[in-house]
Amino acid sequence: MPATTLTLATLPSTTDLLLGREAELARLDAAWADPGCTVLTILGEDGLGKSALVNAWLARKLPSLPNTVRVYGWSFFSQGTGANQTVSADFFFDDALRRFGDKYPSRGAAWDKGRRLAELLRKQRTLLVLDGLELMQTPDGPDAGAIKDPALYTLLDELVKENPGLCILTSRLPVTNLPALDRPPAATLPLEPLPDEAGAALLRAHGLSADETRLRQVSREFQGDPLALTLLAGFVQTALSGDLERLESAIPLPEGEARGRQARRVLAAFEAHLAGSPELNLLYILGLYLRPADRYSMEVLTRTPPAIPGLTEAFFHISEERVLGLIPSRKARPRRYEVWEQAVDRLRQANLLLPPATTAEDEGEPPLDTHPLVRRYFALRLADRFPRAWVQGHQRLYKYYKAVTEQYPDTLAELTPLYHALAHGCRAGEAQYVMEEIYWERIARQQEFYTARVLGAYGADLAALANLFRKPWQEPSPTLPKVNQATALSWTASALRALGRLDEARQVLEAAIKLYAGKKKWKEVSIAAGQLSQLCLLLGDIPSAVAQAQDSVARARSARDQVQQMIAHAGLGDALHQAGQLEEARSAFAEAEKRQRRLQIDHPVLYSRRGYQYCDLLLTLGEFEEARQRAERTLEIARANKWTQDAALDRLTMGRALLAAAKAEDGPVDAPRLVLSASARQAHKRGLDAAGQHLHQAVKTLRQEGAVELLPPALLARAEWHRLLGRWAEAQADIDEAQSAADRVGMKIFQADARLAQAALLAAQGQTAAARSILAAVREMVEAFGYHRRDREVSALEAA
Predict the structure, then answer these.
(1) Which of 190, 206, 241 is the last residue of a domain?
(2) CB 3.0–4.6 Å: which of 185, 246, 515, 799 could bond 38 by disulfide?
(3) How many domains does the chain fold into?
(4) How far is CA 544 from CA 87, 201, 550, 622, in A?
């Protein structure tokens, strides 16, 4: 029986004609046959036929694969090229995790999704094809080629290490931030231009007649670019009646060697030849799309009056009439479907359209598609030549997509039309309306932030928000009012932060604060400054964190907003705590709690994240019983409101408090407890067991919830529990996971905490020299970050 094909539906349709690639096909065969090859990257410029090579190999290979092999293909081009080339991997992971049997595809942080998918792929030999990887890479600049999506990065990092199957990547750019892809067990297959003889064979296969020397000369003039040669053959056949000798007068000789230049030369000739025809209208229509174009939405353009000058006129009968015999009026009637069908057929004959997809899973007519380079060319030409048609076309598509789905779709797949509507609306110049009506109201569901908090689709949100920018993430659309620009920046910062891109999030928040301040929106300034303070803490810039928290308090006071003043004082308390200013921190938390009592008489103590932070300070101050009692109280609030993360934080506090109680009775207060004595373990067995249960549950829940910034302290607390009980291996595992999480995102204070925990574990095992070496590095980090909360712990370990 053939292989189990889960899906190949999103892979681009390509021509069956593949010439001059025998060596590359053999390399693919060898990679699949080699159990030591885990990932193969096919590298090549636009138009060299990367997707065509993979499709040809799949067509040849699939019938011979056993049914124990699973096959899955995904093209990032299926989502569209995206605003400013910003595309999300969320749709891929949502689909792939479901198909491979994950029951909760939206659960967990992005890194966890990548790891889970890798584990599922390892269970059974799988052929995984990821096409168009360049859309997930930084296109240019010092980070060109880097994969910034954490889920995709983790998946590839895991697969390159261990993969019983094969992952095939196609990209224009090498992956620069995953060096493992450049060496075994990974491999690279560079795709070069066709040699002259293969280019000549390709032209001949497309029906051009000339002697071999002439065909090779033409191939050489177009630099062996398969896309350019395929388009050229179509142009000669349809525009020059197959007469290759007329070529030089129709298409100028090449100028320069910029990427895609050869294909664009042919497209310019096609544009001139097709002027005023339904075929050119159809090519312009395809330029409106960022993805394959479905028939229903195209009918909104080609069958719904009025005609759009420069874009759809060829599909309408236009008649001039006069109302009351005086006022001129144009009326448009759609032409017969045959006009559309003939235009499609002619463009296929000219090789301007890709063959209809044969793997589409949706019922109905397959979408129309063309090579991304062709789509980009006609998009730019339409916007330049007919700017009003560009706007009107996007307006129609915006209205279609926002109406074609439910008001509040539940799944990522069901939300796709709204993401399309957002993109088209912004291109129509409706950024402000789209931001409010589509993103805020229907995608985010206002304060619920549904796609992010429920679906975990931070990447999809970031790709959507890119439409609100002229230059991500620096220049919001000038059509947005300043306050909306600031809000777009603030939302973007939240998505970047959730994806672990903390430095970028910090810069974006700083820009948002400037815009809000310019409009004297003091509450919004206070909120953003508080968020910036949290980022600065994570990034190890604690003096700036304190300064931003102080500014947050001042701006909340200016806004006279009581709730925000309470939140800002709690944020200041947390920043001061990390800076080692413990009494000042206590005062700030006390002020926050006083305001909390005024606002909610039924909840006189801080709860949720703010309650956890206050208890964190109390534990530092040695007031562990007070912290435990508070956590027990706020846990009930979290349970009543089904606040899963908050409940996990309360459990974390309770576990740490019980652990602190056991330590307090096992020696002098100022001496570090590396391992509990046997008598202390026996005397506090019940409390230690309860501490372990709380810590296990906290780690489990925070991992499931994808709480990237909260998981490291939970892991390190559990590592301490293991260490105190003499469980070295378990403690080391938790420290390693916390260290990895901190390193992956650049959370510097947790990097310091993980190293401090490592030093304590080594000291507990009697490895004093290794512990002291790590402690020296921790001391430097504490001083550099201003992380003086840890001064006493470091000093105690140094003296041990």
Answers:
(1) 190
(2) 185
(3) 3
(4) 33, 65, 10, 27
Residue 539 within a domain: no
Residue-wise pLDDT for 202-236, tens only, equals: 999 999 999 999 999 999 999 999 999 999 999 99
Q: Are the beta carbons of 610 and 646 closer than 8 angstroms? A: no
Task: Give phi and psi for 660, each to the nearest 5.
Answer: -65, -35
The verdict on 208 and 162 lying in the same domain is no
Using one digit for the tens of pLDDT, what is the confidence trace for 421-430? Answer: 999 999 999 9
Residue 110 lies in a domain: yes
Q: Where are the alpha helices (DSSP H) in 642-677?
A: 644-664
**Residue 47: left if φ>0, alpha if ψ -120 to 50, beta else—which one?**
left
- Which are the contacts of 44, defined by CB distance < 8 A and separation ≥ 6? 50, 170, 172, 190, 191, 192
User: Is the pLDDT score of 272 beyond 90?
Assistant: yes
Helix count (H) and strand count (E) of the chain?
35, 10
Q: Residue 482: what are its φ and ψ, rounded to 5°?
A: -55, -40
Q: In this predicted structure, what is the pLDDT of residue 324?
A: 55
Instruction: Examine the pLDDT at 82 and tell me if it is beyond 70.
Output: no
Longest pairwise C-alpha distance within the chain: 106
Bridge partner list, 41 = 169, 188
Q: What confidence tier does 683 reach under pLDDT thresholds 50, 70, 90? A: confident
Examine residue 43 and state whether it is found in any structural domain, yes or no: yes
d(CA 570, CA 669): 28
Cβ atoms of 579 and 786 within 8 Å: the answer is: yes
Give the three-state DSSP class for 330: strand
Q: Please check whether residue 380 lies inside any domain of the structure.
A: no
Q: Which residues of 369-405 are buried (b: 16+ CB within 10 A; e: fewer)?
A: bbbbbbbbbbbebbbeebeebbebbbbbbbebbbeeb
DSSP code of 339? H
Q: Which of 190, 209, 241 is the last residue of a domain?
A: 190
Range of the domain at 235: 196-273
Of the chain, the percentage scoring pLDDT greater than 70 comes to: 94
Give me the amino acid identity at 590. A
Quote the pLDDT of residue 360.
Answer: 46
Say yes or no: 152 and 219 in one domain: no
pLDDT at residue number 684: 84
29: left (phi over 0), alpha (psi -120 to 50) or beta: alpha
